[in-house]
Amino acid sequence: MAQTVNDVTDLMSANDQPKSGFQMPVGLKYVFMVLVLGLLLLILLMGAKALRDAPPATIYVDTQNLSATQYQVLQQVMSQQQVSSFFTSDLQALRDIVTSFAWVDQVSVTRDWQRGIVIEVLPKQAVAHFGTERLVDAKGAVFVPADSTELNRTQFATLQGEISQAPVIMQQMQQINDWYAPLDMQVTDIILSPRMTWLVNFDNGLRIVVDNENTAQKLLSLSQLLGNQLSSRRADIQAVDLRYKNGFTIAWNPDALPSDNLDAHRQ
Length: 267
Hints:
By secondary structure, the chain is an alpha/beta fold.
């Protein structure tokens, strides 16, 4: 019985012994690791040199959404820029150059394998004049156009005032046009003075002056009066002064002969 137990013990001990096999010497392992790291470092150095020595990237200005003049202006400026390779060029710097043009609304600068560095631009869309040398878009952003001939658009209304007040003036004009549209009247000129007095001219010749107190209510009430009580005499009215707390005054055309006391209206 004791012999049997010893035999089993010897057999288990034999199974626990590790199997012999080839083992790489420790020194050789270190040499192999050094070679691998050296190879990776060499690849990185070669890649960095390739990027550094690569030819300058091509800048491509997309013509979509641009007029001929806008494209020429951008193309001339971008052709003068010193850019590095395709991968290392500073796209944000290029974007900042394009956005420095006041007439540019949105800019996209991307890398394209076929075309190079692609610049796509969406210009501001003018809806009115601002003074005589600028335009303004629907958001009230004032800008000098790339093409000066755009300043000759006779169909545009003219806004005047401080540039910082342009969004307010634009919003006011849009609101007035909405209120007076049923009367077939549209603003041609709107001025906001430094004292916050509004002067509004319409395409039918009517002129309105209003202060900055309850401006919206006064203009809306007048549009309703012109469409109702004053509708028959609307063509005879030259100007309306709304700078009164409890009413307004009317200036009639020289050839108009009011038959009643409509030269003043009290609320």
